[in-house]
């Protein structure tokens, strides 16, 4: 009997110890889970408070667009109490507000909101957002005309046409047309005229196609050239007209050649004469006489780009190439009394950025055409936002029999946005000189630049007059 009682006591001790260990572990687990749940709840509440802080200041700017000091008249940060639905306080959002200014004008506003929950400030959450007008840089292409994207095209970014759109290429983003239907003619590869949907063709990812969609207002995105000229004269760089006479004269085809340098300067040459080539123009309202090939030029000046106003206004024909060292906007337009001369912008060489961290960007706005020059690189790279406000973006047709060194090129890669009032074209169909295409670039790759979409160079055309959050992220 003594032996049995001892065994029972030992068993009680062993199983009691096991039970106590399990109970302790279970209690510890429950307490840990409660702490995790409490921390998650606090973080969630703090996140909601931070988000409410951003929404509050968006409301404030909608009513007081010039007030970056929360109505206090003094520098921040600003603590804003966020109410909860029951009338209490959900927490506090601490706001930091910073304006991005170029050429004396506010281009965007950066908001930082740090939220803390009312009952526990130990888990703050930080949100940052940029408040600006959405720009054309959010698209890879916007065309105010019917257009044909060929089978060689690879398009990474939204593509929109205010006219009809034949899409035979590979599109990896939304493709839209403002028309429900249109007439496809031989100019768009249809052997006979036929009525087709707003977007049609043999391209891939057709689930991304949509039509009809609202038009992009080209009148609304048009630049105010007179105002930009005044700003460039006061704070940027201004180059007056160098050519002379009316558009029919030989002297009217002179202009400037701009070469951007990675050290923050731009070298300017005066183009004193050009060759006259015969071509079929991508802009069908132009003459077949082509004056885009430089014959003689001389160094004019080297300018240091202003750090606070990267705006260049050229009131003449302009050839451009080089390495962009900052956020730069180049305007090519004639606002003088002699309105019969309409200058063009010519992309002579590669245009790249000195830095890939988003601090550099390029916007080119032409009052007429933006054309790739005949002596462009065999494989060309263009970084930037290219706006042909009154004309077309593209490359004229140069016969491979007449101009074999200028006609047929390799690959054209565009990182940015192409905005064209008229139909674009960088490859001409047909065959010639042993190639399956007659002129232009054999393959084209287009990708919109996400960093420029959120932070474009100054005076990049906006798609709307309304300000909104164009970037939003948690830190």
- The domain count comes to 2
What does the average pLDDT come to? 89
Low-confidence stretches: none
Helix- and strand-based class?
Answer: alpha/beta
Bin the helical content: 10-25%
Main sheet specs: 14 strands, mixed
How many helical stretches?
4
**How big a fraction of the residues is strand?**
35-45%
N- and C-termini, Cα separation: 71 Å
Shape: elongated
Counting DSSP E segments of at least 2 residues, the number of strands comes to 31
Radius of gyration: 30 Å
SSE map:
Elements: H1 2-63, E1 78-83, E2 89-102, E3 105-117, E4 125-132, E5 141-143, E6 147-149, E7 154-156, E8 159-161, E9 165-167, E10 170-171, E11 175-177, E12 181-184, E13 194-197, E14 199-200, E15 209-210, H2 218-221, H3 225-235, E16 237-239, E17 255-260, E18 265-278, E19 289-304, E20 311-314, E21 317-324, E22 327-332, E23 345-353, E24 361-366, E25 370-372, E26 380-388, E27 393-394, E28 408-420, E29 427-428, E30 439-447, H4 450-454, E31 468-474
Parallel strand pairs: 5-8, 5-28, 6-9, 7-10, 7-30, 8-11, 9-14, 11-15, 16-20, 17-21, 20-22, 21-23, 22-24, 23-25, 24-26, 25-27, 26-28, 28-30
Antiparallel strand pairs: 1-2, 2-3, 3-4, 4-31, 12-13, 17-18, 18-19, 29-30
How does this model look, in words?
- The chain has 475 residues and is of the alpha/beta class.
- It has two domains: 42-132; 136-463, no CATH class.
- The protein is built from four helices and 31 strands.
- Strands 5, 7, 8, 10, 11, 15, 16, 20, 22, 24, 26, 28, 29 and 30 form a 14-stranded mixed β-sheet that branches. Strands 19-18-17-21-23-25-27 form a seven-stranded mixed β-sheet, with no helix packed on it.
- It starts with a helix and ends with a strand.
